[in-house]
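User: I'm putting together notes for a lab meeting next week and I want to include a structural view of one of the chains we've been expressing. I don't have a solved structure, so I'd like a prediction I can at least talk through. The sequence is below, exactly as it appears in our construct file.
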Amino acid sequence: MLEDLVNEGGAALAYGAVGVALMALGYLVVDLLTPGKLGQLIWADRNRGAGLVLAAKLLGVGAIVTTAILTSEDSLGEGIVSTVVYGVLGIVLTSLAFLVLDAITPGRLGAIVVEAVTGDAGDERDSPAATSQTSSGPGIHPACWVVAATDLATAAIIAAAIS
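Assistant: Thanks for the context. Below is the predicted structure for the 163-residue chain, given as structure tokens.
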């Protein structure tokens, strides 16, 4: 029993490390596809659009990695390799979907998703009851929702294909 616990604990650590590495890669890809530094945009500038796009990417990568782990081979080595392959494939395909979306929509999508939209804070400040003295902070450009949905849908397709 102790031997099983140690083996399964080691497998969990290995898969966890792969998952974290793949999510870090997903972060770097979003950082490359959007202008500016993603960390600065999200944590310092509080850019909601950049946060939404990154969150969708990380959720998608997490779903792909989870599916890859659940359907992996009995051998830890083969399971790790297949998880890495499917995770990288997911990042590549979601990035490709972003680039296709960028090509068929007006403007530069990477710049649009990090653009702050004034007057669309997405909260009670946008309600008709809000007074004219309430300042509405930067909101989320509608393109961010499209990018997030595209990322999650692409990830779901890949996860389904894995299983």
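A couple of points you could mention at the meeting. The longest strand covers residues 116-118. Strands lie at 116-118, 138-140.

User: Perfect, that's what I needed.
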